[in-house]
Each structure stands twice: as structure tokens, then as C-alpha cells.
Specification:
By secondary structure, the protein is an alpha+beta fold. The protein is built from 7 helices and 17 strands. The strands form 3 sheets. It has a 6-stranded mixed β-sheet with strand order 8-9-10-7-1-11. Strands 16-13-14-15-12-17 form a 6-stranded antiparallel β-sheet.
Length: 357
């Protein structure tokens, strides 16, 4: 049965109030996917409306140069055939948001977590000053859809050409199609386009692909090792702590941006002692959420890390991206919430991390 596609984000009613780390229960936001939803992604093909994202459109003659001076990646040279990850930092180098950025005609689009969008858009707008640039919430006019698995044949009925590499994007009458990193060796694509066109074309996918919960996309992002900054972890991490330097979300040769000195000092002075790892935990626990603290068995008095993202996993339990002291991975066990809490099982990331000195 077809149900109407939700837009990438509802219109926010205002800037969200400040939220302390760990105070929001993330897994309750999206219902747990069924076994056949996971199966569709892993063994066939599936699509899912991505209601957890919002979109900011940047327009105007100075839009690229303005964003270039605010984000961790290069937007000045962003062309119409590629997409890039980027972060937005405080003056202390701590991430306020993470984005996927790309061009659609003369517009630069920023896809980010829906719960941080109002505050981030308001903050960025404060620094436009005399620049010829405008930021607008485009979430109400656009729909975002994720596709994963064996989806190329279905997509070829919507787009004339498909992206042939990660972070390659193509534009068409139906919007933009961007290939994003594989998860569990399954292809993944993001389709962002005008809501009316997307909703009109979705029925053509239903004969070929299964529609599944947006929570499946959160799980796939985690298995791809790609962290997302959401409200509970705002200002908790410098970019390297969530592997943004490895994922290509930081350009160390570009000009200044808020927090650049802190980010550069962490990179070049060998002070990166914390990274993000992939892990899983068994059980159905209320305290599995972004911002929840982790403890090491040998040092129960102080937290050794924090959950960045969490999602229901195939086969039960929860998969996690966790920011953690590298030393805590060398021996002993890492536990959730307390030194005697549930134990984490660490998994291999789909990419390598540099050896820290």
C-alpha cells in the first residue's frame, strides 16, 4: 500500500531549546524496522523517505564564498557534478552540524539533521552581513528519499544517468541523485527533488522496490561509518573525533572558518587521541541514545567516550557509532552508562584510520 511521502523536514516552529548531551532518547523517534525491511535492503532493493533530514538552500552571488568561510570544506570550487561532506564548528572547533553539500543550478544545498536545522540556519544567517547571499529553509518544498541495495534498474526509470562513483551527483527533471558511501557492500543513493515531482514518480518504484522505514537509513549510515551531528551531541566533538578528516569533510588547505585554528592544531600537533568506532550492543535498553556516556572497565570513575549515533540493527540489538579514547580500545571492556553496564562489541569500520602518534 502506498502512503504519502513525507517531506525532508516539516517547517520548524522555532529554534530548539538547548539540550544537554544524552537527554534525548533517539531510538524512540523512529519505530523499529521489521525483519523484512532489513531483508529488502540486504537482499533486494528498497527506498525510504528520509524524514529525519532538513535542507537549507543558499542562493545569491556570494553564496559559495560565504559558505566557504563558514564550513570545514571547500564550497568555492564545488561543481555541479559532485557532493561533499562538511561540518560547521563553533569558535572552539566543536561541531554544531554536519552536512552533505552540493550544487543544484545556482543553488548550494545543505542536507543536515532536521533537529539542528533551525538553530544552525539562524546562526549562519547572523554572519551573512553585507554578503549577497540568502539562506532559506527548503525542506517544505523538497522531498528526500534514500535508496539502497539493488536499485539501479528502478532508478534508471527516473533518471537518464546514474552517478558512477561515491559523492558523484547527477541532476534531472526529478531533482538531484547522489551516490553516497556503500553500507555492507550495498549501493546507496540519495534522491532530493521537488516534492510534487518526487511524489508523482514514487509509485513507479513500488513494483521494483520495497518501501521501508527511514530508521533503516540511520542504520546504513552507521554501518557506512558516517557520523551525523544531531541535537544531543552538538558541540561535543572536533571534526577529527568523528573521523571527518578521513571522510573528506575537512579541507586543510582552504581559508579560515570558525574553529579552524583548533581543528588544524589537532591535525598537525598529533593531539588526536579520540576517534569514532563502530560498535554494537545487545538488548532493548532505554539509555542507548546519542550523548550517552561510555565507561571503561579499568577506569569506572570517568567516561571514556560517548555515543554519536545509534540505530536498531538487523537481527536485534543496536548498532552504534561511538567517539572514544583510543587507549580504551587496547584492553579491557567498554560499557554503556556505567562500568558495570552492557558491554559493547566493536566491529571493523569500512575504512581505515590513520595511526596516531
Amino acid at each position: 500500500m502506498n502512503t504519502p511521502l513525507a517531506t525532508a523536514s516539516g517547517t520548524p516552529s522555532g529554534t530548539p531549546s538547548s539540550t544537554a548531551p544524552g537527554s534525548a532518547a533517539a531510538l524512540a523517534v523512529l519505530p523499529r524496522p521489521s525483519a523484512d525491511e532489513f531483508d529488502a535492503v540486504l537482499h533486494h532493493g528498497a527506498y525510504m523517505p528520509l524524514t529525519q533530514f532538513g535542507v537549507i538552500d543558499a542562493t545569491g552571488d556570494d553564496a559559495a564564498s560565504f559558505l566557504h568561510g563558514q564550513l570545514t570544506n571547500d564550497t568555492q570550487h564545488l561543481d555541479g557534478a559532485s557532493a561533499r561532506l562538511a561540518g560547521y564548528c563553533s569558535a572552539k572547533g566543536r561541531l554544531l552540524a554536519s552536512f552533505l553539500t552540493w550544487r543544484s543550478g545556482d543553488t548550494i544545498r545543505l542536507l543536515l539533521s532536521k533537529d539542528v536545522q533551525p538553530a544552525v540556519q539562524k546562526r549562519l544567517s547572523m554572519f551573512i552581513l553585507r554578503a549577497k547571499a540568502k539562506l532559506v529553509d527548503a525542506s517544505g518544498e523538497l522531498a528526500a528519499v534514500g535508496l539502497a541495495g539493488d536499485v539501479r534498474k528502478a532508478l534508471s526509470g527516473v533518471f537518464d544517468a546514474l552517478p558512477d562513483g561515491v559523492h558523484v551527483q547527477v541532476d534531472g527533471a526529478a531533482g538531484s541523485l547522489i551516490r553516497v558511501p556503500d553500507a555492507l557492500e550495498r549501493l546507496r543513493y540519495l534522491w532530493i527533488g521537488p516534492k510534487v515531482q518526487v511524489e508523482a514518480l514514487l509509485p513507479s518504484l513500488d513494483d521494483k522496490l520495497k518501501r521501508v522505514s527511514p530508521a533503516v537509513w540511520d542504520w546504513l549510515d552507521i554501518r557506512a561509518g558516517e557520523p551525523r551531528i544531531t541535537q544531543p551531541v552538538v558541540e561535543q566533538f572536533v571534526p577529527q573525533m568523528v573521523n571527518f578528516d578521513v571522510l573528506g569533510a575537512v579541507n586543510f588547505r582552504k581559508g579560515c572558518y570558525p574553529g579552524q585554528e583548533v581543528v588544524a592544531r589537532s591535525q598537525y600537533r598529533g593531539t588526536i587521541k579520540r576517534r569514532t568506532s563502530l560498535a554494537s550492543v545487545d538488548g532493548e535498553l532505554d539509555d542507548i541514545r546519542p550523548g550517552a556516556e561510555l565507561f571503561h572497565s579499568d577506569d569506572p570513575g570517568q567516561p571514556c567516550g560517548m555515543i554519536v549515533n545509534a540505530a536498531w540493527a538487523q537481527g536485534g540489538g543496536v548498532d552504534l557509532l561511538v567517539e572514544i579514547k583510543l587507549a580504551a580500545l587496547e584492553s579491557g571492556s567498554v560499557r554503556l552508562g556505567a562500568a558495570d553496564g552492557p558491554a559493547l562489541r566493536f566491529l571493523a569500520l569500512p575504512y581505515g584510520l590513520p595511526t596516531e602518534v
